[in-house]
């Protein structure tokens, strides 16, 4: 695996691959890699000649200084995990290398997608994500880029950015990877206390029950039911639960045939904020 922390060297390396007609699959990450990331890399590996992974904890997408400071950084272990999946290139730039001395986001419009769910609770988050993903795409110039569906809103926003800015890259969404007990894999899971880790699978259990009952219960009934579930669960604090249309991410009040819906949830387990979502079927 080749490792670069400087844009110029990475660009030269990619240019050489491109001159040799190699296709590039890209998996951007913030490190603290887990099986979910590795599954994206394996997918990228199947469909591209070369796989580039980036590890960069992007400061402009954090709305909470403590979350940024405490975000797990495990580069040595990450490198060990990347070898067996045959990652070809790892890019680990510094904050200066990406932002120079201006650690600020570009302002984006994602046609309203950015105002839903996470956008309501994480000020500026999606401008930060848009800024870094666009910058990384410019450096890596991938043919395809891979993102997990755990951050489903992020995935839709990146697709929108690619479409609006006419970027020449195909965005591939990949299913959520879960622990055996159902908890969606996330780098933040390592920061859960033992008791919060034990209770955290309750989030996915709740989503599965919503999925089961979606055909027979109304959206209002399901919203109320979920809120009550969390009222009875003192270790978990519900931030939002929303059933939304997949494409627009607008909150659904009623169900309309032929539309695709997902349930989205954000929960605090102590200090750690966890998100998850599930595809719903209309009958
Ligand atoms: O999903 C993530 O890990 C990050 O938001 C991303 C896409 C790598 C941008 O920093």
TrEMBL record:
<dbReference type="GO" id="GO:0004592">
    <property type="term" value="F:pantoate-beta-alanine ligase activity"/>
</dbReference>
<dbReference type="InterPro" id="IPR042176">
    <property type="entry name" value="Pantoate_ligase_C"/>
</dbReference>
<comment type="function">
    <text>Catalyzes the condensation of pantoate with beta-alanine in an ATP-dependent reaction via a pantoyl-adenylate intermediate.</text>
</comment>
<comment type="similarity">
    <text>Belongs to the pantothenate synthetase family.</text>
</comment>
<dbReference type="InterPro" id="IPR003721">
    <property type="entry name" value="Pantoate_ligase"/>
</dbReference>
<keyword id="KW-0436">Ligase</keyword>
<feature type="active site" description="Proton donor">
    <location>
        <position position="37"/>
    </location>
</feature>
<keyword id="KW-0566">Pantothenate biosynthesis</keyword>
<keyword id="KW-0547">Nucleotide-binding</keyword>
<feature type="binding site">
    <location>
        <begin position="148"/>
        <end position="151"/>
    </location>
    <ligand>
        <name>ATP</name>
    </ligand>
</feature>
<keyword id="KW-0067">ATP-binding</keyword>
<dbReference type="InterPro" id="IPR004821">
    <property type="entry name" value="Cyt_trans-like"/>
</dbReference>
<feature type="binding site">
    <location>
        <begin position="30"/>
        <end position="37"/>
    </location>
    <ligand>
        <name>ATP</name>
    </ligand>
</feature>
<feature type="binding site">
    <location>
        <position position="61"/>
    </location>
    <ligand>
        <name>(R)-pantoate</name>
    </ligand>
</feature>
<feature type="binding site">
    <location>
        <begin position="185"/>
        <end position="188"/>
    </location>
    <ligand>
        <name>ATP</name>
    </ligand>
</feature>
<dbReference type="Pfam" id="PF02569">
    <property type="entry name" value="Pantoate_ligase"/>
</dbReference>
<comment type="subunit">
    <text>Homodimer.</text>
</comment>
<feature type="binding site">
    <location>
        <position position="61"/>
    </location>
    <ligand>
        <name>beta-alanine</name>
    </ligand>
</feature>
<keyword id="KW-0963">Cytoplasm</keyword>
<protein>
    <recommendedName>
        <fullName>Pantothenate synthetase</fullName>
        <ecNumber>6.3.2.1</ecNumber>
    </recommendedName>
</protein>
<dbReference type="InterPro" id="IPR014729">
    <property type="entry name" value="Rossmann-like_a/b/a_fold"/>
</dbReference>
<feature type="binding site">
    <location>
        <position position="154"/>
    </location>
    <ligand>
        <name>(R)-pantoate</name>
    </ligand>
</feature>
<comment type="pathway">
    <text>Cofactor biosynthesis; (R)-pantothenate biosynthesis; (R)-pantothenate from (R)-pantoate and beta-alanine: step 1/1.</text>
</comment>
């Amino acid at each position: 695996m080749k490792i670069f922390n400087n844009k110029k060297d990475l660009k030269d390396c990619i240019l050489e691959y491109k001159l040799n007609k190699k296709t590039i699959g890209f998996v951007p990450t913030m490190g603290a890699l887990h099986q979910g990331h590795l599954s994206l890399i394996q997918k990228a590996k199947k469909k591209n000649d070369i796989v580039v992974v980036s590890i960069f904890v992007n400061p402009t997408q954090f709305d909470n200084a403590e979350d940024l400071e405490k975000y797990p950084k495990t580069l040595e272990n990450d490198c060990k995990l990347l070898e067996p999946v045959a990652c070809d290139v790892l890019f680990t730039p510094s904050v200066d290398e990406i932002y120079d001395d201006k650690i600020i986001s570009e302002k984006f419009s994602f046609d309203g997608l950015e105002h839903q769910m996470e956008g309501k609770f994480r000020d500026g988050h999606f401008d930060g994500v848009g800024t870094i993903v666009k910058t990384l795409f410019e450096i890596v110039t991938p043919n395809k880029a891979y993102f997990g569906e755990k951050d489903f809103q992020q995935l839709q926003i990146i697709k929108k950015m690619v479409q609006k800015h006419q970027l020449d890259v195909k965005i591939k969404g990949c299913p959520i990877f879960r622990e055996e007990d159902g908890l969606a894999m996330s780098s933040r899971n390592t920061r859960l206390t033992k008791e919060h880790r034990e209770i955290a699978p309750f989030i996915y259990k709740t989503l599965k029950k919503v999925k089961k009952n979606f055909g027979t219960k109304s959206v209002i009934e399901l919203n109320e039911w979920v809120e009550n579930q969390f009222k009875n669960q003192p270790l978990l604090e519900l931030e939002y639960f929303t059933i939304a249309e997949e494409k627009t991410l607008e909150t659904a009040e009623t169900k309309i045939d032929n539309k695709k819906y997902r349930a989205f949830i954000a929960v605090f387990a102590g200090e750690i904020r966890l998100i998850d979502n599930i595809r719903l079927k209309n009958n």
